[in-house]
Amino acid sequence: MARKSVGADVGLTLGQYLASIREDRGLSQRDVEKATDKVVSNAYLSQIENDLIKKPSPNVLHALAEVYAVSYENLMERAGFVFPTRSRAGAEQRHGRVATFADHNLTAEEEAELVKFLGYLRSSKKKPGGQSGR
Known about the structure:
By secondary structure, the chain is mainly α. It has six helices and no strands. The model is unreliable at 1-8 and 88-97 (pLDDT under 50).
């Protein structure tokens, strides 16, 4: 099955994000219903994926995180729930967020291309005259 190309999923709604992950895993909405032991019905998942339900319960998000093998914390944040961070100390620490495409099963070649593209984006943010995107 050909993989559907998904752009930077940062701007995706929770529903769009969940649909992209489900499609990446090759699952139907009925497959997800079975895998969650009907915690998430296919009809309810359809409503989430079509943004009719924007803030499903934490129990539903947990079930989906388990089936999709993605970060529960990420789903909670995308749904608008406040999720405590481990530590805000040390502003120089990395932000600790999961990589944007970590939930998509990328090949080594796809990862390498993303790293190259990131380098390009970072270099293009540097503006002449001492201005930069930092």
